[in-house]
Design brief:
Mean pLDDT: 92
Largest sheet: 7 strands, antiparallel
Radius of gyration: 30 Å
Strand content: 15-25%
Helix content: 10-25%
Low-confidence stretches: 1-33
């Protein structure tokens, strides 16, 4: 049976001959269906191809986002329930970009497999897997297997895309299964039906073969922790899908551009993963990002990029040993240093005071800073100085390698003067630690990159030590969930990948137990499919701005694991500088193969034995280190002799850190999200007709005009509900009546009180709506807020407002509006996890909520503000008879 779906993306749906009832036995459950821990309530992932411009984002609700914002929704089961956040995404083999989902409806289990391939029509599909050889379009595949796991006959249903539903009904005998295949081009194609006969099993095998062949031929690291190993492999894949034609990008669908800052770590990750071709393409982009004045730049006036580019070029040489390449790159490095030397010596005419008397003499000029959260361009950023000192030292080392003795002396003398200027600027702050800006304002970021990725300061520099203590214990209240805060005001936001820089400083300092602890907290803040975030609203387990998978977050995790196992420190190579003690236990194994290092490729195996460990070593030969030091706890001595190995005995760790431990600790420390009783899943699979409903009258309580000043702000520019339809309409399967303000004295919406709203408008703190009817379900349209998109709310629910349903028998039922769950900001991207975004315009949206009612007449509804900064909004209410 084969049908063409006549919707915008031109997909096709086919059920194979095996899908006939009784035609095949039930397949074995797919790997990953034990629903492992997923930190995020907005868990996302991507299926896509290496270096293609776009990838298909898979939403928290397991919808597919295609070109032109097209959306594919899959429903299953007797009630045609849409896939939702309840289905946890995992990956085939634990790391391949092939997403697995499982859903259940009674005795019927639905297994979903999602992946991407080149269009089958391309001339050379093997090359097209590696590079967009014939355009950027590609094919998304969805395989759905429905299996009757019960002892009686059952019915399986499947429907694809709510805009043009095509349904399948399969009667299934006990133990039997049915299969459907979806083939969906990312961008619309007029001849998509030509792919109907393509073999899904063949293309799935080709996909797995390509990624295994690409990733597994590079460096290999296997540790006793399965989650850690799989997350490392998934991080490699994340880099390559986000790349666009060899250019490093920060994410798919967000940060989809080149950043020198993030790219520096992403490129290092590719190098250390052994993905040499991708690294070579990526480093070539850096050489193109130099301005005529010599400064490297990707984002305007963010000066750390100059030093990061210099370190990146040096690091590429150190990994490859390509002296000829370095000789070609060196003139650009020197030109960037010349800009730096000039920039930190402004003329007196450019300053309010003579240069020698400036409190910022010898450091870089004031500039906007993203990571430090200082955009006004009026602050001097230590992180910019640290990175440029690092780049200066790397350039001096490049000059040494190339035999430019006079330049080496000149550059090292410049580095000495620059350090003296930094010392003077720090002394003026009066702080024991380095601040985010020399003016002491801002968020800690670049100033924490003191010992990593190279050591700009001594490892025991008291300012470095004090900074590590400050951010861990004091800044914003100290680390939360083993992770640095984002805001000095104690806002409920943490930033895992930024936290990595402090962890890596501890690695360099030999604080192995602290590194192991924070490594596992880093792993905790990932999805079950090993996708990492940028920042997190940790009270809501929510990645800000939907930034998952975040490529730099994945890169920083991969770098952390690699350097815990093998770390270059000048002309020394350190093995196992920080690993959990249990990784060295009897029967455990750490395996490293073909790992690129500053000394050449190398490998080693550590095998745990009853009385200690045994080491086999494939030492690097290109430029052997002067010392190779193996770090072991006293209880796990080296049992065999290995030429060239020195053993450094370290302390035992006081507790065991592993992934189950950190998950358990997190769950014990953090209040779990409470379910909302009676909440209805939306959109409704079977929409309601108007005659089944009563659309309640809000004309007497409406108090604002959506088309002129929806939150009371006169002339708000584009921040209006432009193109919002008024009158009766169906939203999310529910009929609503949106008031026309032209017919209601300019009032169309209900907005409750906010202290941020204009003071001349007496916004109500609550309104009452009479009902006087019994109903099955109650639906609300609106459920958005103004003024405070991250409002943490009040009360037990952390709500900004609530609907109080008052029954005729005196009992009440509460439906809270919780930021990120049942409501969100009206002009930002829809993020409410328990609401349905039913109407959307530019830049606004409205959400739908539904709740089941008791079998008692409802007397009235109260829409009540809870005294928070947010201004809650209601547009319409409907009760199902």
């Amino acid at each position: 049976m084969c049908r063409k779906l006549s919707f915008a993306v031109g997909a096709t749906l086919a059920a194979t001959s095996l899908a006939l009832a009784g035609a095949s036995p039930a397949p074995a459950p797919q790997q990953g269906h034990d629903e492992p821990f997923d930190y995020f309530r907005n868990s996302r992932n991507v299926i896509g191809l290496k270096d293609y411009r776009d990838g298909t984002r898979v939403t928290p609700a397991n919808e597919l986002l295609l070109a032109n914002k097209a959306r594919v929704t899959i429903r299953f089961g007797r009630d045609l329930t849409p896939l939702s956040r309840e289905q946890t995404k995992t990956l085939l083999d634990g790391w391949l970009p092939i997403i697995l989902l499982t859903a259940r409806d009674g005795d019927v289990r639905y297994d979903f497999t999602l992946w991407a391939t080149p269009l089958p029509s391309v001339k050379d599909w093997q090359k097209a897997f590696d590079w967009p050889t014939e355009g950027e379009n590609f094919l998304n595949w969805i395989q759905v297997t429905a299996t009757n796991t019960g002892a009686a006959a059952a019915e399986a249903k499947l429907i694809v895309d709510e805009r043009a539903p095509h349904s399948f009904n399969w009667p299934l005998a006990p133990g039997r299964s049915a299969e459907a295949i979806l083939r969906i081009p990312f961008a619309p194609l007029p001849d998509a039906a030509a792919f109907d006969k393509e073999d899904a099993k063949l293309w799935l095998a080709r996909t797995a073969e390509f990624w295994r062949g690409l990733i597994l031929k590079g460096a290999q690291i296997t540790v006793p922790c399965k989650k850690a190993t799989e997350a490392l492999l998934a991080a490699h894949v994340c880099q390559l899908i986000a790349n666009d034609h060899g250019e490093l990008h920060g994410g798919e669908g967000f940060y989809d551009e080149f950043y020198i800052r993030d790219g520096a770590y992403q490129l290092m990750e590719l190098e250390e993963a052994g993905l040499a071709d991708a690294a070579a393409r990526a480093v070539a982009v850096y050489l193109k990002k130099q301005r005529p004045d010599g400064r490297f730049e990707s984002q305007n006036n963010q000066f750390d990029a100059n030093g990061q580019a210099l370190w990146t070029l040096w690091q590429y040489y150190k990994i490859t040993g390509d002296r000829e390449w370095l000789a070609k790159a060196y003139p650009q490095m020197r030109k960037a240093v010349d800009w730096m030397m000039k920039a930190r010596r402004p003329t007196t005419r450019q300053l309010a005071v003579p240069a020698a008397d400036s409190p910022f003499a010898g450091v870089l000029p004031a500039a906007p800073a993203d990571g430090e959260n200082l955009w006004d361009g009026k602050h001097h950023i230590p992180g910019y100085d640290f990175w440029n000192v690092r780049g200066l030292l790397c350039t001096a080392d490049a000059a040494r390698i190339l035999g430019k003795g006079a330049e080496v002396d000149e550059l090292l003398a410049e580095a000495k003067l620059y350090r003296e200027a930094i010392d003077a600027a720090h002394k003026r702050t009066g702080l024991p630690h380095f601040p985010p800006s020399w003016e002491k304002a801002g968020t800690h970021w670049g100033n924490t990159e003191t010992l990593w990725p190279t050591e700009v300061f001594e490892r025991d520099d008291p300012r470095v030590v004090a900074l590590m203590k400050h951010v861990r214990e004091d800044f914003g209240g100290g680390f939360v969930e083993g992770t640095i805060r984002w805001s000095p005001g104690g806002a409920p936001v943490i930033h895992p990948y930024m936290s990595a820089y402090t962890t890596m400083a501890s690695l360099v300092r030999g604080e192995h137990e602290k590194v192991v602890e924070e490594f596992y907290w880093q792993l905790l803040h990932s999805t079950a499919a090993h996708a990492f975030p940028e920042g997190i609203f940790y009270k809501r387990r929510y990645a800000w701005s939907e930034t998952i998978p975040h490529v730099t977050g994945a890169a920083n995790y991969a770098l952390m694991l690699r350097h815990m196992l093998l770390h270059e420190r000048g002309d020394e190579l350190h093995l196992l500088l920080a690993v959990p003690d249990w990784w060295l236990g009897d029967g455990q194994e750490i395996r490293v193969e073909r790992a690129p290092t500053h000394f050449g490729p190398m490998g080693f195996n550590i095998s745990g034995k009853p009385n200690g460990v045994e080491l086999t070593l494939e030492a690097p030969k290109r430029n052997p280190p002067k010392r190779t030091i193996l770090h072991l706890p006293r209880s796990r001595p080296l049992l065999n002799t290995v030429a060239g190995i020195e053993v450094a005995v370290r302390s035992e760790q006081s507790r065991r850190w592993d992934f189950p431990t950190v998950v358990k600790l997190y769950q014990e420390q953090v209040p779990q999200v409470k379910p909302l009783p009676g909440l209805i899943k939306l959109p409704l699979a079977m929409g309601l007709r108007p005659e089944q409903c009563r659309m309640l009258d809000l004309t007497k309580v409406a108090n604002t005009d959506p088309f002129t000043a929806p939150f009371g702000v006169p002339k708000p520019g584009k921040f209006l509900f432009t193109a919002l339809r008024v009158g009766e309409q169906v939203v999310g399967g529910v009929p609503f009546n949106i008031i026309d303000p032209a017919r209601n004295h300019g009032k169309g919406l209900v907005v409750l009180h906010s202290p941020n709203a204009p003071k001349d408008i007496p916004w109500p703190k609550q309104v009452e709506v009479p009902v006087g009817h019994q109903g099955k379900r109650l639906f609300f349209l609106g459920n958005v807020t103004g003024w405070s998109p991250t409002d943490e709310g009040a009360g037990d629910w952390g709500a900004v407002a609530e609907y109080v349903i008052v029954y005729a028998d005196g009992q009440t039922q509460i439906l809270p509006l919780i930021s990120g769950r049942t409501c969100d900001d009206w002009v930002l991207a829809p993020v409410a996890t328990d609401a349905h975004c039913g109407l959307k315009g530019d830049p606004w949206h409205l959400n739908v909520l539904g709740v089941a009612l008791r079998p008692v007449a409802v007397e009235k509804l109260i829409f009540r503000d809870l005294g928070t900064p947010a201004a809650p909004l209601l547009a319409a209410i409907t009760i199902e008879k």
